[in-house]
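Lab notebook: predicted structure, single chain.

Context: the supervisor wants predicted structures on file for every construct in the current expression panel, including those that have not yet been purified. This is the next one on the list. No modifications to the sequence; it matches the entry in the shared construct table.
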Amino acid sequence: MKNVVVVVLFFMSSVLLAQNGRINDQKIFGVKSGKIEYKIEGKTKGSKTLWWDDYGRLQCEVKKTSTKMMGMTTNEELMTIRNRKGSYHINLVDKTGTFMSLEDEADMTEALAGTSDEAELKRKAEEISKGFDAKDVGTETILGRTCIVMEIGKLNGKHWRYKEIPLKMEIKMGGLLGNSVEEAISFDENTTVPASRFEVPAGISIQKTEMPAGLQGLGF
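Prediction complete. Output recorded below exactly as produced.
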């Protein structure tokens, strides 16, 4: 299930980047700052907290989960930070993490799309959405906020967003993988978030991730 969620988030991020140009130059969310707490249900259970500022240019996400599968239980505690430098993916259990700069992230999106032209990137993003049979199907209310609901047919999933902020994600896999639901249970909008929240905690060993050379010129 974790790998499926990673794939979904990667392509959702690619679509976002392609539609908005270079990520370090654009607003990501339509709300300046906030904090959201989520519950996670399914084969994987747990909680997630998201903080952000500067319309999502600064983000910190902490996810604590427990997954039971085939008689085994796996516990994880992960942190993702996006700041002015780039993105950090951190394992809080073993105190290790990886880093990719904002420029490398944008370069990767453009390499995957095979272009840096904004209009062409948008067209490629639309192709990706069609490939996953992703389309907006209406609105629903979560925590008193009107969300646009997107169905992702190829993954049998749905995604709810409020001003581009995810409030719920559902993937129905069935079988051993089961279903996965992440849903917001509290939302503090336009709250003060300390700058220290977007810095890597002390004692974490970070390794820089380079864009794979093989992605150059690779299109969909």
